[in-house]
């Protein structure tokens, strides 16, 4: 692996573990084994390295969301997305950055985070619209609001799991979201009326 990629991968992991504020260039050099000269050749500042690492983290998040696009049953794709394996006790690589004051206060560092959530939202809205069109969800549901709800369930699930050091609350939250989606099926509504 070349030194640039090693630095970005290492910064990505450290930011996920500690956040931007609590990660120093020295931490990155020590963990990566890359020398100071090489580090500053590729990244003149910590912020430059952090931007590259954030872009990598966004690339990791967005393809996962793109699994919502594609062939097959829309509800099955939504359920697969919600239930896919995640490193719950470490939290979301991108969502974690919203808790770091230095990231929140720097528009350049916050931009990739904001862009990642906007793309994830758009992916969810798209598949929710497909589910409504396929009559898997009621047509009176607002896909924009529902996409925000599902994102909040995942992000909030991470917070609850980390606070309790137990993945159970995360698993419960996403299973509950699936139960609510299934309850919003027109066929369920018709069964209740009969």
TrEMBL record:
SUPFAM superfamilies: Homeodomain-like, Tetracyclin repressor-like, C-terminal domain. Residues 24-43 bind DNA. Residues 1-61 form the HTH tetR-type domain. Keywords: DNA-binding, Transcription, Transcription regulation. Gene3D superfamilies: Tetracycline Repressor, domain 2 (1.10.357.10). This is TetR/AcrR family transcriptional regulator. It comes from the Bacteria. Transmembrane segments: none annotated. It holds the Pfam family TetR_N.
């Amino acid at each position: 692996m070349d030194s640039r990629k090693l630095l970005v991968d290492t910064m990505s992991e450290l930011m996920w573990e500690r956040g931007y504020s609590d990660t120093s260039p020295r931490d990155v050099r020590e963990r990566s084994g890359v020398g100071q000269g090489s580090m500053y050749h590729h990244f003149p500042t910590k912020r430059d390295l952090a931007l590259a690492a954030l872009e990598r983290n966004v690339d990791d998040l967005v393809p996962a969301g793109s699994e919502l696009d594609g062939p097959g049953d829309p509800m099955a794709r939504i359920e697969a997305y919600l239930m896919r394996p995640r490193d719950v006790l470490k939290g979301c690589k991108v969502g974690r950055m919203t808790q770091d004051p230095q990231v929140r206060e720097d528009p350049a560092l916050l931009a990739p985070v904001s862009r990642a959530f906007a793309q994830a939202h758009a992916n969810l809205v798209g598949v929710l619209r497909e589910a409504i069109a396929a009559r898997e969800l009621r047509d009176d549901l607002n896909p924009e609001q529902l996409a925000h709800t599902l994102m909040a369930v995942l992000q909030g699930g991470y917070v609850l799991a980390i606070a309790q050091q137990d993945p159970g609350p995360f698993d419960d939250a996403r299973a509950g979201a699936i139960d609510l989606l299934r309850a919003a099926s027109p066929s369920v509504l018709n069964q209740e009326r009969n």
